[in-house]
Structure formats: structure tokens, C-alpha cells
């Protein structure tokens, strides 16, 4: 129960109208009252396989009623048979099945009585069926002639319906039935005429009783059919049969109904039941049965016939089915008819039943009892289960009414009304309780009620009183009337407060009073806050296969927390709490997550919150967007030679309107199964007039497009073939190509398949020399090129190409100018001169060749050069040509990447697409000195505490006469901060070592060495090293040389060395190799290395080895030599372009001398402990 939180001090009272509760509330069992039957059995079957049978009769009343039974209208003593088991305070009894129980069959009635009266049950029929059995009998065989009529009787035993009858043979196979052979409703097997094939000795009738779980079989019957032979017959058997049939032919005769019943009969059927009319006839040929309704119309629902038209069946019979029905059996020999007069009757049904109730002393009583039926039922009144004697009854009694005035307490009784006709009996009881008691309030006192703001509150006050009580409700402690319309008293005494507010909380009292006394109860009402919900997003639109998350935000009264529940529904159906569809839809209290959204996920999602007092809902309309469904039902119309109209039905747009429709076509000759776009139409259009090309066998399809994407294509339309026509256009992109000087190859883009317009496509090619009055040369070709030989070199021609097919020619073609084949130029440029820009770059000038000497399209000029000797040593070089191309008609160019201080020769030639022309006479030029390259290495030979000896190699290329070296050094530390740079000039150009003094002890230095010429100094080689700490050497020597342990250690080392030398000697004698070169590399002599570098200079070993322990960084490039590096790619490509002044931009790839690995990194020298 909901507990109150507060009670307001406002007091209000309301006096309500008098409320009659005599019939509205069941009489409390604590009040004296007549017996009332509450439960009883109806017709019951005592099956032999049941262990017992229960016949129920329960009743209530005060005092507790006692029970009596009658059987077949006579008193029945339940204690008279030990097989009957009874219960205390109950009329129900159980019959135990101990074998023979046939004596219990009959119609029972239960009577429940107390001092106030007697209640009576309806009749309860107990049926005790016997086990059905066919009698054991000997059935004589039936001998009949061909064409005779035969009846095989089944005569099934009696049993509980339904009864199912089957005719089968001894192998339990059904006897075939048709118009000639059929079974009647009673189960007999009828032969309209027999045939020899009907002969058999195992006609068996089976009767099945499903409710008894029993099937019984009759003894087999034998039927023998013989031929009818005429005395003079000597023909074939078939002739005999035909003769017999002719003799036996006869008109139909009705076997059901039999002729003895006349031409008509009456049939009675119960309303609501099933009408079955049956006609079975014999005759030869086999008669055909038909049905008509003679009087009135056939039912609206055509009646069905069964058993090959021999049975007319009407379900749920109504009064409209009453009338005369006729069946007709006919064959070529005649007809037979029978009429059925159908009468529809019905068992009794109530029009008005007597109704009892609670009556106060002095009131009047009227009981009505009316029933209908066919035949009309008879009405009988009973009082306490006994017929009413009008002589002693103080009230008035008639067939349909009983009345009493000025009721007194002793008038309390049970009145029964029975309506009976031949189809059944119905019973109605009316308990008349005459009471005079003070009000009884059945609702407990002090009930606590609660509701939410805005809802209605119902405060119950169930009252029983006789005479009827006046009911009023008051609020808190006041008796002032309630004046608002929100308060309403219902018939059962409940106070309804509509549209509640917070101030409606409080204590209420229900008062009930009549002439005998009064009573009151209190009730407490508390008003809670209403539950509120919001679902976000409200109207989500989501793409198919994407995800959506719905959130349900709820507010509810804290007091309702424990009863608060949340659920989700889709289109009214609740979604399960656990995840569904393999985790695709996940519910987690207030969230609903749908992944991989499908089209069927679209709908209204409702979040439902419920508490003990209210329910709230909020919804979101989920709209799923997807590409449209494919268009459907493509139709072609308005067929023309070059157009057709295509129409279609648009598919579902899936919440995104169709923006446009794309019409595609496929033709099955040139590119079968290749779909191409033909047209586009706005999204609302579902028809388009399509422009078509001749000589194409089209089929079309449509693709719809919306904001989401493209639909799947529609199914293709029917094919539509356009007739052929002459070409509408000529080839395009006509050009002349030639690989030989006296040749002209004319080429063009062929017509596309859709442009051919018809069969037999060819090209008519016309050409003539430009500026020469001559006729056109013409030739028809099927290819898209034509080669013409023996033409002048590089002469302009006028060219035309026209498309032609079997239906005609295309439009007049345009004239294109083309040139015959090219040749190489036959003249060299003149006036070649060179302007030296710096030691590696020169600018070349020349005069172009005359136009008539080019003999083709001038592609540009090629500058070639080669080094002849070095100016440093005068040494001649093997000619190694380099060239650079300059595209276009120009007269200068820049040549980069030359070696300084060298002598070169240079030529210029013109070129066409066919090749290079003759070169100009060579021009000799010299490049000036440049700065030297980096010295090959820089090494530290010796380190002292304040000085260092450095050694370096010659530069790889001096690029001029060396003037000396610049030696630099500076202090560095671990934080990458450096000191000032000190310079030392080495004027002796042949010096390759230097001793630096005045350095700081224990300090790290970085050293630089540059080679210099008159043009300047080149890039420096570097090295790093650390000077010794002051006194380090002496301190160590004096500290350990006089120690005994040191002397022992030295001896041990000497012995170990001797052992190692012995092992090495043994290995060498056994054939092992020990590389002297590897040994020298591992232990180099610094002085010897220095001497080697000084003697051999730039010719030193390119695979130089660093000093042992040094950390040198090797950084060198090995350049490959090219004998004739063409710079055409650089001149005309992405990386080789020239500025306006002709200077070269990008990498130059000329010939290089053999590369070497140069030492440019840093290293830290290590030194021995003893100097």
C-alpha cells in the first residue's frame, strides 16, 4: 500500500445522492442469504477407460446449504452405493469405475437448501456407453447378374457419436467409390449397377468411434457378378456384355428415400445445426443426381454437395433454409424425383430471465420469464425447487410473470423458471433475498491510495445495505460540501477525483447510512509527480547499413523509483530486452542501438516508462534512407527510325526523392553486354523520348538516382532495332605520318560502331599536292590508314577522308593539310662561337641553317663537345663526347658541367624527327682555373697534452695550380657549442702534414684542411681529437712499474703470448691461411701510412682504411662513365630545362673520372698508453 506523506488542513465535505446497491454488490457471506448454485456439471460421458467420473454441484449461502440429488426425477441417495465418494460441505460426488456402471446412467439434478430456501441445478445427464460390437453372424454370398442393383448393409452398432464408417477390403484398402458405387449416411454400400470387376469376397465394413477409442469390423461379405447369356449368343464376350447391358438398361429408381415413402418426405433440422439431405438411385446407365430448391431461393452461399452429388449439405442452418428441396436422378432412360419438406426448429432460448436481488421489507417484487423456441416452449414456475401451488401462494402467478407486494423477511426464496419443448429444457433461477440490515462497508478502513498529478484517483467504498444506504464523502475533518465538478460518486460507492492536483492529498471519509444504522471508513490519498519522457533524436534519418542510437531520458517521482520500468516498442510490438538479431539491435535500459540499419528497421520507436501509478510514452520516427528500388515495367512506344519513347514505373524512393533517372542502352552486335549511358531525365519523369542511331539493335534499362546513390538497374526492356542509313559524319583527327622520306601515311580516327549507321563501312580517301592544279587521287579502304609511296620529300598535300556504307556517303569532308615524309638536314649551322662564362659553364652561339636545307620539321639543334687535354699537366685525353639538345629554332645555348682548367672542342648540328644533320667545324675553347676539390683525408698522427700532428691527402682534382693549404681548428664540447676558429696558412703546396702547438690539455678539438688555387680554396676535410691530460702518462708509469703484482702479470701475459704463437705456427704448418694483408690492415703503422700518402698522392688506394679505433664517417659517390650521355631528356623533359638565357637547369650527367670513396666524416684518435 502506498503510504501518505502529509495531510493538509483543508476540510471539505460532499453530500451525494442516495445510492441503491441491491443488485450491484454481491451479498457478503456474513449476511444471511439464500443458496446459489456456483458450479455444476453438464452432460457427461462415462468412458470405460476412465478411472472415475465426477459430477459437480457447488453452492454458497448463509447458513451453509445442504445438498440433495434426484435421478430421473426420483430422490437419489449418494450413500446407497459404496462406489460413490462424497465431500463435506459440497454436493459434488465421484463415481469410481469398478467395472459395470450401467446403472448410473440417467439424468441427475442437484438441490442446495438452507432455512431460507432451495436452489436447483440444471439437469445433468450421465451417459454410460456400452462397448460397440458387430454381432457374430454368417453372411451368405450375393450372386447377381451384370447390371443389377446391389446394397451391402453395414448396420453399425450403437455408440457415442461421432461415428465414422469405412468400406475396405481385407488388406485395409478402401473400396473405390464414385457415382456408381457409394456409401449412404447410414453406412450401407450402394451399387447403382454392378460390373464383373465388383466381384470379390472381402467387402468389410469398419465402424470407428473416436471418443471411445474403438474401431470394430463386420464379417466380410462376398459379391459374385455373373454375365447374362442369351441362348442364341455365340459371339465374343464383349458382344455378350453389350447384349446383357441392353437387356438390363432401365430408368433410375430411388433407393434412398425408398419408393415406399412416396414422392416427398418431411425433414426437421435444428437451427444452427447441419442439414443433410440424401438421394441414392439405381439404374443403368448410372444415374446422375442434381438438386434444386423448389420453394424460396437457395442460400446465398451455394450449398455444397458430397458423396458424388448424392448428399446436399447446409451448415449453420437458419430460418431462411426452410422450404422444399428436390433431388433428381436422371439417365438416358428417364428420371426419378423426390421432394424434401425441410422444417427448421430450435430449442428454447431466453427472451427475458427472472432476476433476483436484495429487497428491503415493504417493497414489491415482479419476476418476468419469457422464452422462444420452435415448437413454442412451455413455462413452469417453481419455488425452492418445487412447483408453485397457486392456491397457497400469496402472490400473483401467470405464465410469464410472478409478483409479490409488501415483501417480508419470510418471503425470501429461490424462484425457478423452466422453459421446455421437444428439443430441450432451459432453467433460470432468481434469488429473492428480503433483508433489513444496517450498512456494511466491505472496503477495509484506513486504505492508502496514491496517484500522479493529472490522473484520476479512485477511493473505494463498497457498501452492502438493505434498505439502500445514503453515501457521502468528506475530506479531512470538515462537513462542508464539495462544490467542484472534479468529484464524482460512482454507483459502487467509489469516489472518483478527476485531474488530480497536489492539493488533493489528504484524508477522506466515506459515510453510509440507512434506517437501520450507519457506518464510516477513512482513506488516505497521496499525489505523486507524473513520469515524463523525451526520446532523442526525435525524427532521425539514417542511411541504410549505418548505425543509430536512440536515448530515452526519463523523469519520475523518487517515491516510485523501485517500481520504475523502461521498455521499448517498435510499431506497437515490444522489443526483447536482450540483444536481437545476433547483436545488431541492442537495448540497454534507456538506450536503443541499431547497427547496420535495414529498411525494415524503419518505423515508430516508442519508449514506454511505467511505475506503480502511471505510464508515460515518447516516440521517435526512424526514417531509413537508401538508394531507390530499381524501376519496373519498361515499355516502348512511338517507334520511329531514329527515336523511341521509353516509359517505366519508378521504384520505391526509400525516403529520398529521386533526383534523376539514367537511361542506359546495350546493343548486341558491336559490344554485347556492355551498357552505355544514353540519356538523363529529371527525377519526376517516368518517360523519355530517346534519340537513336541507325543500324543498332537496342535494349534499354533505367537507373534511378537519389541523394543516397544509384539504384540497381531495372530489368532490360524488349529489344528495338533501328533501320540502316548513310553515315552522318566523317572520320576525325586526320594526320600524316611517315617513316621514309618518299612516303606519306595518312591516318585518321575510325568511326565508332554506333556511328557506322549501316553495313559495308569504307573510307574514301582523296589527296593532291597543295598549290598544284591537278585532279584528286582517290582510293576506298576499309582500314583507318593509307600509305602512298614515291612522293617528294616533305611536300604539303591536301587530304580528305569520307565515310561510305552500303546506303550512301557521309557529308562532304573538310580538307586537311599534311606533309610527305621527312629527311635529315643536309647543311650544318655556321658562325659557331663560344663565350666562356666561368670555369664550368660556357655559352654557345650559331647561325641556323636555311629553311630549304632542313628537309622536314626542324626539331632543334644539338651541341656536342669533348675534352682534349688538361691545362694542369698538359696530358691528352681520349675523346669522350657529350651532347645537349636545344628544342626549337634558336641560335644559342648554355653548356654546363665542364671541367675547369681544360681544353675542349665543340660542334653544332640541326636535327629533324628523321635524325641529325652534318656537324659544324669544331671550335676550340679553354676553361679557366677553379677551386680545388676536398682533400682526400685528414688524419691525426700524434697527440700530446698541448700539441697535435696532422696529415692529409691531395685533393682528388686540383682544378688548377695549387698555391697551398688553409689549416683551421676550434674547441668543441659535448653540448655542441664551439669556440672561435683559428687559421694556419700552409704556403708550401707540397706539404702534406703539420704540427700544431699551443693547444689546451684535455680538450676536444675539431680540425679542418682546405686546398687552394689562385681562384680560391675548396671544401674542407675534417677530423676531431682530444688532447692528453697533464701528467697522465708519468703518473701511471711510476705507479704500477714498481709493484710486484704488475711484474707477475707481465710474466703471465708473456707465457700466454708464447702459447698463442705456438698454436698459430701449428695451424700454418697444417695448411691454414693467414692473410698478411688482413694483418696489416688490422695493425697499420701510422708513420708508414703517412709516408705512403705523401708519395702516391691522388693515386692512393681508393679503398682507404681508417686508423685502428677511429670512428670515420664515409660519404662518397661512385659516378659511372658514359661515353655519349645524351641530354635530350634533360633538354626537353621535366628535369632538364633552360632559362631564357639558355642556362641549364637540373642535373647534368656527363662523363666522370673513376670515383673514389672520400673520407669526410669525423673520427676520434686513440693512442697507446706508453708513448
From TrEMBL:
GO terms for biological process: adult locomotory behavior; axon guidance; brain development; cognition; exploration behavior; negative regulation of neuron apoptotic process; neuron migration. Residues 1-24 form the signal peptide. GO terms for cellular component: apical part of cell; axon; dendrite; plasma membrane. Residues 630-725, 730-823, 828-930, 934-1031 form the Fibronectin type-III domain. May interact with L1CAM. May interact with ITGB1/ITGA1 heterodimer and ITGB1/ITGA2 heterodimer as well as with ANK3. Belongs to the immunoglobulin superfamily. L1/neurofascin/NgCAM family. This is Neural cell adhesion molecule L1-like protein. The gene is CHL1.
Amino acid at each position: 500500500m502506498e503510504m501518505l506523506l502529509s495531510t493538509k488542513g483543508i476540510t471539505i465535505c460532499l453530500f451525494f445522492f442516495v445510492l441503491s446497491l441491491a443488485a450491484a454488490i454481491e451479498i457478503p457471506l456474513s449476511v444471511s442469504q439464500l443458496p446459489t448454485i456456483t458450479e455444476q456439471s453438464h452432460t457427461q460421458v462415462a468412458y470405460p477407460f476412465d478411472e472415475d467420473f465426477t459430477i459437480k454441484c457447488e453452492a454458497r449461502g448463509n447458513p451453509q446449504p445442504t445438498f440433495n440429488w434426484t435421478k430421473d426425477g426420483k430422490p437419489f441417495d449418494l450413500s446407497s452405493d459404496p462406489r460413490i465418494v462424497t465431500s463435506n460441505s459440497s454436493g459434488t460426488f465421484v463415481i469410481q469405475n469398478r467395472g459395470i456402471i450401467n446403472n448410473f446412467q440417467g439424468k441427475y439434478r442437484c438441490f442446495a437448501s438452507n432455512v431460507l430456501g432451495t436452489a436447483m441445478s440444471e439437469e445433468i445427464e450421465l451417459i454410460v456407453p456400452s462397448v460397440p460390437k458387430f454381432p457374430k453372424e454368417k453372411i451368405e454370398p450375393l450372386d447377381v447378374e451384370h447390371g443389377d442393383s446391389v446394397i451391402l448393409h453395414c448396420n453399425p452398432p450403437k455408440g457415442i457419436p461421432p461415428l465414422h464408417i469405412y468400406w475396405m477390403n481385407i488388406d485395409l484398402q478402401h473400396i473405390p467409390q464414385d457415382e456408381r458405387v457409394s456409401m449412404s449416411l447410414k453406412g450401407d454400400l450402394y451399387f447403382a449397377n454392378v460390373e464383373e470387376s465388383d466381384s470379390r469376397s472381402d467387402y468389410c465394413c469398419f465402424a470407428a468411434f473416436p471418443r471411445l477409442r474403438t474401431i470394430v469390423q463386420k464379417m466380410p461379405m462376398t459379391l459374385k457378378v455373373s454375365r447374362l447369356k442369351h441362348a442364341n449368343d455365340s459371339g465374343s464376350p464383349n458382344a455378350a456384355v453389350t447384349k446383357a447391358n441392353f437387356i438390363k438398361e432401365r430408368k433410375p429408381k430411388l433407393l434412398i428415400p425408398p419408393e415406399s415413402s412416396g414422392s416427398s418426405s418431411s425433414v426437421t433440422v435444428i437451427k444452427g445445426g447441419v442439414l443433410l439431405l440424401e438421394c441414392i438411385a439405381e439404374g443403368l446407365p448410372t444415374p446422375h443426381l442434381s438438386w434444386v430448391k423448389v420453394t424460396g431461393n437457395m442460400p446465398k452461399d451455394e450449398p455444397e454437395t458430397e458423396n458424388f452429388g448424392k448428399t446436399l449439405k447446409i451448415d449453420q442452418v437458419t430460418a431462411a433454409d426452410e422450404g422444399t428441396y428436390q433431388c433428381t436422378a436422371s439417365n438416358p432412360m428417364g428420371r426419378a424425383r423426390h421432394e424434401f419438406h425441410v422444417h427448421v426448429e430450435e430449442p428454447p432460448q431466453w427472451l427475458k430471465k427472472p432476476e433476483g436481488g436484495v429487497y428491503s421489507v415493504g417493497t414489491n417484487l415482479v419476476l418476468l420469464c419469457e422464452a422462444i423456441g420452435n415448437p413454442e416452449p412451455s413455462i413452469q414456475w417453481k419455488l425452492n425447487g418445487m412447483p408453485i401451488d397457486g392456491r397457497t401462494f400469496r402472490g400473483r402467478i401467470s405464465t410469464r410473470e410472478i409478483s409479490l407486494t409488501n415483501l417480508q423477511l419470510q418471503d425470501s426464496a429461490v424462484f425457478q423458471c423452466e422453459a421446455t419443448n421437444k428439443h430441450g429444457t432451459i432453467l433460470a433461477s432468481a434469488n429473492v433475498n428480503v433483508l433489513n440490515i444496517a450498512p456494511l462497508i466491505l472496503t477495509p478502513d484506513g486504505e492508502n491510495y496514491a496517484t500522479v498529478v493529472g490522473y484520476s484517483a479512485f477511493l473505494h467504498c463498497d457498501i452492502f445495505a438493505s434498505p439502500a444506504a445514503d453515501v457521502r464523502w468528506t475530506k479531512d475533518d470538515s462537513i462542508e460540501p464539495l462544490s467542484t465538478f472534479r468529484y464524482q460518486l460512482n454507483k459502487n460507492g467509489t469516489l472518483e477525483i478527476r485531474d488530480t492536483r497536489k492539493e488533493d492529498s489528504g484524508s477522506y471519509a466515506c459515510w453510509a447510512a440507512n434506517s437501520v444504522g450507519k457506518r464510516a471508513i477513512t482513506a488516505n490519498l497521496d499525489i505523486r509527480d507524473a513520469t515524463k519522457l523525451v526520446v532523442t533524436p526525435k525524427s532521425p534519418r539514417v542511411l541504410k547499413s549505418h548505425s543509430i542510437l536512440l536515448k530515452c531520458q526519463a523523469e519520475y517521482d523518487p517515491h516510485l523509483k523501485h517500481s520504475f520500468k523502461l521498455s521499448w516498442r517498435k510499431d506497437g510490438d515490444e522489443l526483447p530486452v536482450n540483444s536481437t538479431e545476433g547483436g545488431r539491435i541492442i537495448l540497454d535500459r534507456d538506450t536503443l542501438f541499431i547497427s547496420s540499419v535495414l529498411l525494415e528497421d524503419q518505423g515508430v520507436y516508442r519508449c514506454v516508462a511505467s511505475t506503480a501509478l502511471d505510464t508515460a510514452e515518447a516516440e521517435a520516427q526512424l526514417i531509413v534512407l537508401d538508394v531507390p528500388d530499381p524501376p519496373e515495367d519498361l515499355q516502348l512506344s512511338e517507334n520511329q527510325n531514329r527515336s523511341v519513347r521509353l516509359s517505366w514505373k519508378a521504384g520505391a524512393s526509400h525516403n529520398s526523392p529521386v533526383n534523376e533517372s539514367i537511361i542506359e542502352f546495350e546493343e548486341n552486335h558491336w559490344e554485347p553486354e556492355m551498357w552505355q549511358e544514353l540519356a538523363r531525365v529529371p527525377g519526376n519523369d517516368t518517360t523519355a523520348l530517346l534519340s537513336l542511331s541507325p543500324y543498332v539493335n537496342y535494349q534499354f534499362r533505367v537507373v534511378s538516382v537519389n541523394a543516397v546513390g544509384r539504384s540497381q538497374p531495372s530489368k532490360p526492356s524488349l529489344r528495338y532495332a533501328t533501320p540502316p542509313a548513310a553515315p552522318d559524319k566523317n572520320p576525325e583527327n586526320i594526320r600524316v605520318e611517315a617513316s621514309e622520306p618518299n612516303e606519306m601515311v595518312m591516318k585518321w580516327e575510325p568511326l565508332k560502331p554506333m556511328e557506322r549507321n549501316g553495313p559495308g563501312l569504307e573510307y574514301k580517301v582523296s589527296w593532291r599536292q597543295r598549290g598544284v592544279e591537278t585532279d584528286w587521287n582517290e582510293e576506298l579502304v576499309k582500314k583507318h590508314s593509307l600509305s602512298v609511296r614515291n612522293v617528294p620529300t616533305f611536300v604539303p598535300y591536301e587530304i580528305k577522308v569520307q565515310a561510305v556504307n552500303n546506303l550512301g556517303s557521309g557529308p562532304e569532308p573538310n580538307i586537311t593539310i599534311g606533309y610527305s615524309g621527312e629527311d635529315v638536314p643536309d647543311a650544318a649551322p655556321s658562325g659557331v662561337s663560344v663565350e666562356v662564362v666561368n670555369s664550368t659553364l660556357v655559352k654557345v652561339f650559331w647561325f641556323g641553317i636555311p629553311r630549304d636545307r632542313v628537309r622536314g620539321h626542324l626539331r632543334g639543334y644539338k651541341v656536342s663537345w669533348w675534352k682534349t687535354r688538361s691545362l694542369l699537366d698538359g696530358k691528352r685525353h681520349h675523346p669522350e663526347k657529350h651532347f645537349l639538345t636545344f628544342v626549337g629554332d634558336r641560335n644559342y645555348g648554355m653548356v654546363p658541367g665542364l671541367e675547369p682548367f681544360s681544353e675542349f672542342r665543340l660542334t653544332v648540328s640541326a636535327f629533324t624527327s628523321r635524325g641529325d644533320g652534318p656537324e659544324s667545324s669544331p671550335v676550340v675553347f679553354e676553361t679557366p682555373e677553379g677551386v680545388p676539390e676536398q682533400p682526400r683525408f685528414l688524419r691525426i698522427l700524434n697527440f700530446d697534452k698541448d700539441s697535435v700532428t696532422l696529415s692529409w691527402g691531395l685533393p682528388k682534382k686540383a682544378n688548377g695550380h695549387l698555391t697551398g693549404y688553409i689549416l683551421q681548428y676550434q674547441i668543441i664540447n659535448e653540448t655542441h657549442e664551439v669556440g672561435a676558429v683559428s687559421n694556419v696558412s700552409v704556403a708550401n703546396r707540397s706539404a702534406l702534414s703539420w704540427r700544431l702547438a699551443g693547444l689546451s690539455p684535455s680538450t676536444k678539438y675539431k680540425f679542418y684542411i682546405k686546398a687552394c688555387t689562385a681562384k680560391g680554396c675548396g671544401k674542407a676535410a675534417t677530423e676531431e681529437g682530444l688532447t692528453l691530460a697533464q701528467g697522465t702518462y708519468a703518473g701511471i708509469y711510476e705507479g704500477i712499474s714498481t709493484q710486484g703484482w704488475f711484474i707477475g702479470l707481465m710474466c703471465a701475459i708473456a707465457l700466454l703470448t708464447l702459447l698463442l704463437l705456438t698454436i698459430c705456427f701449428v695451424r700454418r704448418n697444417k695448411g691454414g691461411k693467414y692473410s698478411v694483408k688482413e694483418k696489416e690492415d688490422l695493425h697499420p703503422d701510422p708513420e708508414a701510412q703517412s709516408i705512403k700518402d705523401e708519395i702516391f698522392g691522388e693515386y692512393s688506394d681508393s679503398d682507404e682504411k681508417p686508423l685502428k679505433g677511429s670512428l670515420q664517417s664515409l660519404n662518397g659517390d661512385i659516378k659511372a662513365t658514359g661515353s655519349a650521355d645524351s641530354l635530350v631528356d634533360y633538354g626537353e623533359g621535366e628535369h632538364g630545362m633552360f632559362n631564357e638565357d639558355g642556362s641549364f637547369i637540373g642535373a647534368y650527367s656527363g662523363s666522370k673520372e673513376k670515383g673514389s670513396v672520400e673520407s669526410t666524416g669525423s673520427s676520434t684518435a686513440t693512442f697507446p698508453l706508453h708513448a
